[in-house]
Specification:
The chain is an alpha+beta fold. It folds into two domains: about 5-95, no CATH class; about 115-275, DNA integrity scanning protein, DisA, N-terminal domain (YojJ-like (1, 3-Layer(aba) Sandwich), CATH 3.40.1700.10. Helix content is about 60%, strand content about 15%. Strands 2-4-3-1-5-6-7 form a seven-stranded mixed β-sheet, sandwiched between helices. The radius of gyration is 25 Å and the shape is elongated.
Length: about 290
């Protein structure tokens, strides 16, 4: 017969044996699972995961029913399967590792002063203004804002400029008779420097339906956002519509004000984290002084 008291006692005893390290262990595993699911979603890995699931089911069934030939075959498939997955998904794995490295704790420890925030606001204002102007005259543009993930390989594919960001310079670079107008412009989001123009970006490897209705410029913008933490602004040459790509997510139909708000929410997020960290340190220092 079920005894509630015994069940509660068992639960309490189990809880009492949980250590802090066990809680940390569970949190780390939960984070890994979360990012693994996020990585698989909307990628080629989603379909592959279904295939792997059916192979595992077939392996269990063959083991239970003692189907020796099938079991032997699946056992050998699984032995080489991990290596095969690494080879097949090398681009996606590289992208994931680059993002993990780009969002390391070192970036949180960076102290951002008011001057850097003003630089970011100037960057947002210039890109919003230029994008709206290009949209009104249907001039194509592909603007990449570099953040923590360095884009050295992409910069080398274009013409290195290292010039101060300005509305006039962007207008000249994307003028339809200019030699560099078909490529991407890379802007350093920390210094407001146009690092290069006419750059070649990797195309998106996703096969989602909406990508069939967009051009190469949009696929390239989504592709670089999948492989880095860059923020990409795209203006369509055919329709004049303004779009953004961040972390592989594609949004469109912006005007000047909505684009400015979107870029502000994304680019000033790092500053708010750093300022919160700075305030935390100042509060600790203030409390220490009060105690002494």
């Amino acid at each position: 017969m079920f005894n509630i008291g015994s069940a509660l006692e068992y639960i309490m005893n189990t809880v009492q044996t949980i250590r802090i390290i066990d809680v940390i262990d569970i949190i780390i595993v939960s984070v890994i699972i979360y990012y693994a699911v996020k990585f698989i979603r909307d990628r080629r890995a989603a379909k592959l995961l279904i295939g792997i699931f059916f192979l595992i089911v077939a392996y269990v069934i063959s083991d239970v029913l003692q189907m020796y030939a099938l079991n032997f075959l699946l056992t050998n498939v699984f032995q080489v399967g991990i290596i095969a997955l690494i080879v097949v998904f090398q681009p996606e794995l590289r992208s994931a590792l680059e993002k993990v490295g780009g969002t390391s704790l070192q970036s949180i420890n960076r102290i951002v002063d008011q001057r850097n925030i003003q630089k970011t606001m100037k960057l947002i204002e210039i890109i919003s203004e230029v994008s709206a102007d290009f949209s009104s005259i249907k001039r194509g543009a592909l603007i990449v804002i570099e953040r923590t993930t360095k884009l050295g390989d992409i910069i080398k594919s274009g013409t290195v400029l290292n010039s101060e960001l300005s509305v006039k310079l962007l207008e000249n670079l994307f003028y339809d008779k200019a030699p560099l107008h078909d490529g991407a412009v890379i802007i350093n989001g920390n210094t407001n420097i146009i690092e290069a123009a006419g750059c070649v970006l990797p195309l998106s490897s996703n096969n989602m339906d909406f990508l069939k209705n967009v051009g190469t410029r949009h696929r390239a913008g989504i592709g670089i956002s999948e492989n880095s933490d860059a923020v990409v602004v795209i203006v369509s040459e055919e329709t004049g519509k303004i779009s953004t790509a961040v972390d592989g997510r594609f949004e469109r139909d912006y005007d000047r004000n909505s684009l400015k708000k979107e870029l502000t929410d994304i680019l000033l997020e790092d500053h708010s984290i750093s300022n919160n960290f700075k305030n935390f340190k100042n509060n600790r220092k203030h409390n220490k002084n009060n105690k002494t």
